[in-house]
């Protein structure tokens, strides 16, 4: 991100201490003339230097002027609030400081993208931004007004989210004009992929998420440390998608790092080796790749052109009980045991109704649940159940205990391979993404960024 930018007018925080250090050195020299001279480097520096004041190179005010456009501390804090909310608020204070710096870098990139689009006479109208904002609100099952209230509640604002929307729309429109028309994919390439898919029928495909962090030999150690901190934050409950959006320096950051469905051999060798052995829901990294390091997250797996049992669609009836406030662990255990014993008698969805009534359990039906959309811990268990059977109880003291009863099942048909149009679109997107990375790199290189 900014570490790759050629920055003009940049005064790193450490230089701000030079006047104080100079005064200190002069005072020491006057009061201790008997000290040995320091190394011969053309500077009059005493051997026993005493630094007055603390210099933390990682500490600086998160504000900047990018080619004349101002990024304020409020901008940074409101965007940071979106990440914290997406991670369930489970971000340690030390990690927040690092995230704050990364958010500033993202805002600098976003500003460069908007400026470049404007320079190419691409205008994103308020109406287009509001329409996208309304769609985001609907995804959160809120009206625009309710979304605005929610954003203010978490410390963000509609303006911050709309600014992010504007950046994404402007950059996509710019790529469509300046990059996409010059990307070509031949019919021979597409047919070659179709032939390879047919030959690879039954082979494993993976859907992985990636967070790519660029690095040079000089910054490799710091980048590895950052990658490990990100992985630890995700393991503690943070959202991989949220971290990918804010940290990843690949073009897939806009979609939460999702690389889509690929065969391991289509990935760089280092990533392919990890992807072949990873289980769904696990991470690997930091993995050294050309230009930096990557973190991989295994979203899903499947077999090429083969019916996947996890694509089965189930009709489920859920029975659940909750624990009132003040319930002790022993009381919760006893109640869960009673619930488990009662639900063992379920023999079909009809009897589930009677058990629910006897236990005072809440009952919910859903007849369009894909097995692969269930939590990983439940998938194998549900695949082993026949119609009419109930799962073992599962849950937590906070969420209560529940069971799932299989009321119906539609097994998947043999999978069909992607058609030529889909493959061509995927190839074009990959090539556009590669050129987009180079485009943004050039914008960073030429940027004039003044930190304040």
Automatic annotation (TrEMBL):
Residue intervals of the PpiC domain: 203-300
Keyword Signal: yes
Gene Ontology molecular functions: peptidyl-prolyl cis-trans isomerase activity
Signal peptide coordinates: 1-29
This protein's encoding gene: surA
Protein name: Parvulin-like PPIase
Keywords of the record: Chaperone, Isomerase, Periplasm, Rotamase, Signal
InterPro entries referenced in this protein's UniProt entry, alphabetically: OMP_Chaperone_SurA, PPIase_dom_sf, PPIase_PpiC, SurA_N, Trigger_fact/SurA_dom_sf
């Amino acid at each position: 991100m900014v570490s790759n930018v050629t920055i003009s007018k940049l005064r790193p925080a450490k230089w701000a201490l030079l006047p104080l250090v100079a005064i200190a050195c002069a005072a020491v020299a006057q009061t201790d003339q008997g000290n040995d001279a320091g190394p011969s480097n053309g500077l009059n520096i005493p051997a026993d230097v005493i630094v007055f004041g603390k210099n933390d190179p990682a500490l600086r005010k998160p504000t900047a002027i990018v080619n004349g456009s101002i990024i304020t501390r409020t901008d940074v804090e409101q965007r940071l609030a979106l990440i914290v909310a997406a991670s369930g608020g489970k971000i340690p204070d030390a990690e927040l400081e690092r995230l704050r710096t990364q958010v500033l870098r993202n805002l600098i990139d976003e500003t460069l993208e908007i400026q470049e689009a404007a320079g190419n006479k691409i205008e994103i109208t308020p109406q287009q931004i509001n329409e996208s904002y309304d769609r985001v609100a609907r995804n959160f099952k809120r009206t625009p007004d309710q979304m605005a209230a929610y954003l203010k509640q978490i410390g963000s604002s509609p303006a911050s989210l709309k600014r992010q929307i504007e950046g994404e729309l402007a950059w996509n429109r710019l790529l469509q004009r300046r990059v996409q028309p010059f990307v070509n994919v031949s019919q021979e390439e597409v047919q070659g992929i179709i032939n390879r898919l047919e030959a690879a029928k039954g082979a494993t495909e993976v859907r992985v998420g990636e967070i790519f962090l660029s690095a040079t030999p000089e910054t490799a150690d710091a980048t590895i440390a950052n990658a490990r901190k990100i992985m630890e934050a995700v393991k503690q409950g943070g959202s991989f998608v949220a971290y990918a959006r804010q940290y990843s320096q690949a073009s897939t950051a806009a979609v939460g790092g999702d690389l889509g469905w690929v065969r391991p051999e289509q990935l760089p060798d280092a990533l392919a080796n990890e992807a072949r052995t990873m289980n769904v829901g696990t991470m690997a990294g930091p993995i050294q790749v050309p230009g930096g390091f990557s973190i991989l997250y295994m979203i899903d797996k499947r077999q090429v052109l083969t019916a996947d049992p996890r694509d089965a669609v189930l009709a489920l009836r859920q029975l659940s009980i909750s624990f009132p406030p003040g319930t002790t662990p022993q009381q919760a255990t006893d109640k869960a045991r009673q619930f488990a014993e009662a639900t063992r008698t379920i023999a079909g969805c009809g009897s589930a109704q009677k058990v629910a009534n006897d236990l005072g359990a809440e009952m919910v039906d859903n007849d369009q649940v894909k097995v692969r959309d269930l939590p990983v811990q439940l998938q194998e268990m549900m695949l082993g159940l026949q119609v009419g059977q109930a799962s073992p109880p599962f849950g937590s003291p906070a969420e209560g205990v529940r069971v799932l009863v299989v009321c119906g099942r539609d097994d998947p048909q043999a999978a069909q391979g992607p058609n030529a149009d889909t493959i061509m679109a995927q190839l074009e997107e990959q090539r556009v993404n590669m050129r987009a990375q180079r485009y943004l790199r050039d914008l960073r290189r030429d940027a004039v960024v003044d930190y304040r």
